[in-house]
Amino acid sequence: MMGPHKRAAIHALLLLLLASCGPSSPPSFGKGGGPPPAAAGARALGLASAGTLPPRPAPPRPLKVIHRSPSKHAEGLSAVVVTFDQPMAALGRATTSSPDRWPLVVTPPVQGALRWVAGDTAKLALTRPLQNARRYRVTVPASLRALSGDGLTAPVSWTFETPRPRLVRVLLRPAETRRHGRLLPGDRLEVLFNLRVDPAAARASLALLVNGAPWPFSTGRAAG
């Protein structure tokens, strides 16, 4: 038989178990049942979850010239080409022959038509040959802007040279005369260059020496 004290202990234990299995009341955070001030402030600032802050805009990057030609010597040149690292013009942009609308400046001035290739390459097709024995300078101004608005940090400038006259050979005329190693009155020296030159301008670069002493001579264009 179970004594009265033991039955009372079992009854109390059953009451405790029933109380623990019943519905629980919501936690209270303070006066009025709201969340603590720190949590409310975090939610007001948008810090309750990751990724709520707006992304920072990408900083501007300077425009760069990544290709240019010609860069040193130009022989038989047909175009001046400059390529940038960003789109510079909309596709299908019209060709222009007006130098004040070109994205580059060439000195001495040249004649040509400029068009944009693939939006990032300016191609200046020459409509008249360049002068020989000249040094040309190409400058891309710092005021130039890409479609993104990015610009150069400084002007980009370089030079190239066109071919200079080069001596090819010297011929003694008339060729059929027997001289026995001597020059005779009426002999002519034909000086051939790789380029067409002005005889008067070439005379300043020529000298005729006889027995080590300067000898007078005249210049002219050879027949034929």
Describe, in plain words, how this protein is organized in 3D:
The protein has 224 residues and is an alpha+beta fold. 14% of the residues lie in helices and 25% in strands. The protein has 3 helices and 11 strands. The protein has helices at residues 4-21, 37-44, 199-203, and strands at residues 65-69, 79-84, 105-107, 112-117, 121-126, 135-140, 156-161, 167-173, 188-193, 209-210, 213-214. A hairpin with a 2-residue loop joins β10 and β11 (213-214). Residues 44-48 have low confidence and may be disordered.
Notable characteristics:
single chain; 224 residues; alpha+beta; Immunoglobulin-like; four-stranded antiparallel β-sheet; 11 strands
Q: How do the strands and helices of this protein lay out in sequence?
A:
Elements: H1 4-21, H2 37-44, E1 65-69, E2 79-84, E3 105-107, E4 112-117, E5 121-126, E6 135-140, E7 156-161, E8 167-173, E9 188-193, H3 199-203, E10 209-210, E11 213-214
Antiparallel strand pairs: 1-2, 2-5, 3-6, 4-5, 6-7, 8-9, 10-11
